[in-house]
Structures are given as C-alpha cells and as structure tokens.
Amino acid sequence: MKYTLIFFIALATVLSAALAACNSGISVPWRQLLGGVKTTEKEVAGRLSAADGYSVQLFAGNVAGARWLSVTRSGDIIVSQPKLGQVSLLFKDRNGDGRSDGQKVLLDKLQRPHGLLLHDNWLYIAESDAIGRVAFDHSDGRLAGRYQRILENLGDDGHWTKTIAISPDGWLFLSSGSSCNICREKDPRRASIMRMKPNGHNFEIYATGLRNSVGFDWSPKDGGLYATDNGRDWLGDKLPPDELNLIRQGQFYGWPYAYGNRIPDPEFSAEASPKIQQKIADSIPPVHEFPAHNAPLGIRFLRSAEQPPDYRNAALVALHGSWNRSVKDGYKVVSLHWGDNGEIRQRDFLWGFLSEDRQAVYGRPVAIAEDNRGNIYISDDYAGAIYRVRQGAPRQTILAARQAPLQKITTAAAISTNAATVQLGAQLYRAHDCAHCHQAQFPLRNLSTKYTAQGLADYFDAPTPPMPNYNFTQVQKKALAHYLLSRQANR
After folding, report:
1. Sheet harboring 225-229: ordered strands across?
2. CATH of the structural domain 36-392, one choice from 2.120.10.30, 1.10.10.60, 3.40.50.1220, 3.20.20.100
3. Other Cβ atoms closer than 10 A to 126
4. Alpha-carbon span 355 to 382, nearest angstrom
5. pLDDT, mean of residues 75-90
6. Residues 57, 75: contact at Cβ < 8 Å?
7. What CA–CA distance (Å, rounded) separates 22 from 25?
8. The whole model's pTM is what?
9. What is the mean pLDDT of residues 28-36?
10. Exposed, middle or buried: residue 18 (CB in 10 Å: 0-12, 13-18, 19+)?
11. Is residue 30 within a helix (H) or strand (E), and if so which, with residue range?
12. What is the rounded CA–CA span in Å between residue 212 and residue 176?
C-alpha cells in the first residue's frame, strides 16, 4: 500500500507539471510528456535484427505514441495515437528512399483512439469508450464525410484499449479488456470479445473470460479466430503465462478464475465453489503460451503471396514487453508457424528492442500490418516509430553499395568503354535490389524488341508503378539500359 501511494503521488506530480506547462503555453516535447526514446535510421540499423531473408528500416520516426495500423488501398498507412487523441496518415514511400513521404492528422480530439479498420470505404475507429466511423477516400487519403459514433458508453477504466476488425463473414468484432487486474466484472462486456454488424446493429458478446485480448486475427489457412491475451500481474516472474487463444462463439476462457491450462487462480481458490470449479473445468485452455508478462499485443497473419513459403500463413505477434517482472523480457516480434499436426512453433522475427543485459529498452512493438506487396509495418509506441520489414538486403547495405563503388565510375569518362558501362549498370541493378521484383513478379522479357538503349534509358525518367523513380543521372540511366539489354542478349 505504501509503494502504491508513492507511485500515484509521483504520477500526479508529473501530470500536474505537464498540464501546467501546456496550460501556460510552454512548448513541451511529446517524448517528455509521453515517455519513451527517439530512434534514428542509424540506431535501427545498428540495434534491430530481422529473421533470415528480411531486413528492417525506419519508415517513420516522429509518430508520438504510435499504436494500431491500417494500410489503405493506395499504400498509405493510418496510425492511431491514443495519448494525443488523434489518428494520422503516413504517406507511402513514393520516392524510393525507404521512408514515409510525410504525415498529416486525419482526426483529433478523440477519446484515446486505438483500434483501426478500413472497410467498404469507411474508416472505423475504436475509441476507449465508443466505436465511430467516417467515409474515407483511398485515392488521396482524405476524409469524405463527418465522423459519427455507431456504438457508445463502453467502459474505459482499467484496460481501456479497444480493438476492431472485420470477420470473413462481414461482422465487426471488438475486444475490450478488464477493468482490473483480477476481479469479477459487473459489466459483461469487459474482458470479452464482442461483435456487431458494420452499422453497429445486432450487438452481442461473442466470447468471455479474456482478460485483455488486444490483438486478434483470422487464420487464412484454417479460418480460426486467434486472439492474444495478457495474463494477470503479481504472481511472480513466471506466472501466469500470456496466451494465444482460438476463439469460438459462446466459450469461456478462464479469467478471472483460472489461467493457462485451467489452473485455478489463487485469488479465488479459497472460495472455489462447485459452480466455479465447473466453470474452470469447462474453460478453454490456450493453444499457445508466451512467457509470463511478455505482453503479446498485435497479431497479424501474413497473407501476401510475396512472402516466402515458410512465412505465408504464419502469424506475427508483437510482444510489448514486461513491466511486472524483476528481469525484463519480451520486447520483440515473434512468428508463429502451424505444423500439419496443429503444433505451433515460435521463432524470433524482429528483435533488438532490449539491451543484452536486459536493462535498457529501446522500443516496444505494438501492432503489425502488411500491404499487398509483402511489406510489413510494425508500430512502436515507446520510440514513436513505424518500422518497415521486407525481404531483401537492408537499405543501409543498398545505400552503401550505391555510394562508394558507384561514385568512382559515374563520370562520362569512366564509362567510355562498353564494358565499363555494363559494369556500372550491373552495380545499379544489384544496389537497388531490382531482382526482388523482376525475378518473379515482373520478369523482364524481350526488352530488345521493345526498346533501344536510349529509349530504355528515357523510360527510367517516368517508370510504370510500382517501380519508383530513382532520379538516376544520364550516365546511370544509360548504364542500366545497356546492362539490361546485354543481360538478355547473353542468355
């Protein structure tokens, strides 16, 4: 009780100072108010590591409290920022530098917006106490109407985040965490997953006993609804496990009476009436367990055909990281792979947010989104960052390859011979990882029947999307054209 009181006094002092600064007109950096660290491209390249075959780069580094993500049809990224009460749009990388081309606020003055969903030209937003929607124009990332709430009066004390997603059969699903660490809820909508029609009608509770299922998604392989769940606190470093549950309608998943594989919670063991014992016996155990206090949040099944076979239909889960643990754990993204027998194997997918001595934290991953080209976006509310993970060499490697060797032979004199021209073209092709798209998705065939060397060089000034404009020099354009034409002639 003593330490709890000290904590709340300290918290009140910090909040009072922040509010005083804001009310007095003093400019206070958002990281000072929200906590966290600032990251850079250099730090991402030096600290973060991705699974074999993938690379990671900083897509946007100034997105305060970034939480949930949604990808528009145009490839822009929508992100919720609950602590700022706003939802923002990050423009896609159209110039090929690996970073978002900028950002703008779509909506502000919301009540802790968290979950996001794009469906049928609507942008749905899950505020902490309501669900709302607004017409959205995917072509230019513009709101096309007025924001309206379709469901209100949701409880938002305790675990306040609300997450939404659309099911394969067209229901709008909503998760709501508990109001407490361990208690009996008076509101049956707490610690549950619910569903409704996209207009807010036909609301019903779908599954219960889920303490805080922040993330959920449907498997493209078996159609099952899988949800992460955060276990209770204050049972030590190793209990209880955090969970992945296969959600079925009308089922009870244990909280607050049990955790893990129907293990009774000590809070209620002394009063375990036959009714509670039966409730525990009928509860559904998790299909996979994460270490205690790893805090699994976002889950996303990878659907793009661009993913390698071993990752297609696998799920990525963001482990936000522990706070109620003597030694920090989590702070990474893992991949889950289903075997033919239903067994789930877990691997590290993106890591480096936690120092080797487990003392320093550099980031806390939250949500995961994937575009149709296989780019994976991951939010980090601690660093206020969005990362892009993709197949191929890291952008830093590409930049290094593009710079030092190319600078030596980019003058007209240096490519006076045909051999040097082709050599430069080959370097450009490798440096920009052109094979990533052109080996399978967009194979280059019969170029010599379509283009002269000059005609192909001119094409690079205004390439057909999705190829970006790399702003090549005249020398580089000619070199790449010569290389591509000679490459096909030598086959």
Report:
1. 216-218, 225-229, 242-247, 288-290
2. 2.120.10.30
3. 29
4. 15
5. 98
6. no
7. 5
8. 0.77
9. 54
10. middle
11. helix 30-34
12. 7
